[in-house]
Amino acid sequence: MWGQDLIRQSMPLLLGCGMAEILVGSFFGQLDLEMLPGLIILVPAIIGLRGNISVALGSRLGSGFHLGVIDFSRSWKKEVQENIIASLLLSSFMSIIIGVFAYGTCQLFGLSSMGIFYFVGIALMAGFVSGIALAALAILTVYVAFRRGYDPDNITGPVLATLGDVITIVCILGASLLIRGMVS
Amino acid sequence: MTYYHFQDIVKESIGVLILCSLIAVLTGQVLYSMQDQLLAVPVFLVFVPVINGLGGNLGSIFGARITSAFHLGSITKLSDKELHKNAAMSVFLGVTVYGLLAIIIYGVAPFLHLEINIDVMKFLLIFILSGVILTIGVMCIILVTAFLSFQRGIDPDNTVIPVVTTLGDSLGILSLLGMIWVIGI
């Protein structure tokens, strides 16, 4: 019994997430990796960071909802505000760190790469813009789940992780085009 | 007064985020070192997020099931039948889903303007084998993490998922590049 359940309940979800990841992959393929040497290093780091920060945000909003401190009728604005400020601060700070790490490891291993301004600029722009989009999506997801009487904990994780990957790669693509355009 | 304070959230998150970011940047360096091979066969770039995303999903399902079984007491040691059943089922699920997605990628590649300029058999073998190796690797990481946590009296629910999501991405990229290297393009 348990075997059939695992297949029946997980397979559609896994296939759906897989298709979204194919979309991520096709954007990945459009990055100008030859013109911006080292850009590829930022991709797993920013996507991973986005997942960590946004899923944690969704998880906190879900807990806040269960605790009754976020109930969408009173005083929730302030709680949500604190959570968003934290999420955006972490996104910005960690994006800079990732840019510096990426440039630093290239120097350490003696690899040719684009300049530190490119690394930090692309990481910060992609990290901050995707951070705003994902924070809005997290609130929307918790709100819709709440309205429909679902437990947000069952929904925010997969929704934010999967859509987060798509939004983030689009932001990396946009930031890399913009930074390259600005410099050249 | 509010329940959440951004200062506390930032303070409590930053350590683990810095560690995860450093691991992710090193993973990125591995990708960079194989960039020429990846660009020679652009469909490989599509594989990266798909293999990683699914590996993470399969890992979190297996991890959640194993930790629940720990709490229920139905799995206590490596030789338990319940564990073998779960492991067999997860590998089966992995092979099926990776196989279906390989076919889907092959089908949509022309619409994404991706030319599949390698042998179809190599395409399928590289994708499915790296997916299956990742699934098995992730399961081993989960079991080690769960058993170690359990022995030390730590709730495995708090340790398994962060360890799997961080190490899983690195392992996914390593197994893909390993397979490209072994099977060749």
Describe this structure in words.
The complex is a heterodimer of chains A (184) and B (185). Chain A contains five helices and no strands. Chain A has 184 residues and is mostly helical. Chain A has a single domain, classed as SLC41 divalent cation transporters, integral membrane domain (Tetracycline Repressor, domain 2). Chain A is globular and about 55 Å long. Chain B has a single domain, classed as Tetracycline Repressor, domain 2. The interface between A and B is large, with 65 and 60 residues.
Record keyword descriptors for this entry:
heterodimer, A: 184 residues, mainly alpha, Tetracycline Repressor, domain 2, B: 185 residues, 6 helices
Biggest beta-sheet profile of chain B? none
Strand content of chain B: under 5%
What is the CATH topology descriptor of chain A? Tetracycline Repressor, domain 2
Q: How would a crystallographer describe the biggest sheet of chain A?
A: none
Distance, first to last CA of chain A: 61 Å
The amount of helix of chain B comes to over 70%
Rg of chain A computed from alpha carbons, rounded to a whole number of angstroms: 19 Å
In which range does the helix fraction of chain A lie? over 70%
What is the CATH homologous superfamily assignment of chain B?
A: SLC41 divalent cation transporters, integral membrane domain
The DSSP helix count of chain A reads: 5
> Which structural category fits the helices and strands of chain B?
mainly alpha
Provide the CATH topology of chain B.
Tetracycline Repressor, domain 2
Query: How many distinct helices of chain B?
Result: 6
Question: What is the level 1 CATH name of chain A?
Answer: Mainly Alpha
Kindly report the name of the CATH homologous superfamily of chain A.
SLC41 divalent cation transporters, integral membrane domain
- Give the SSE order of chain B as H and E letters: HHHHHH
Mean pLDDT of chain B: 89
What's the total count of β strands of chain A? Answer: 0
Provide the CATH architecture of chain A.
Orthogonal Bundle
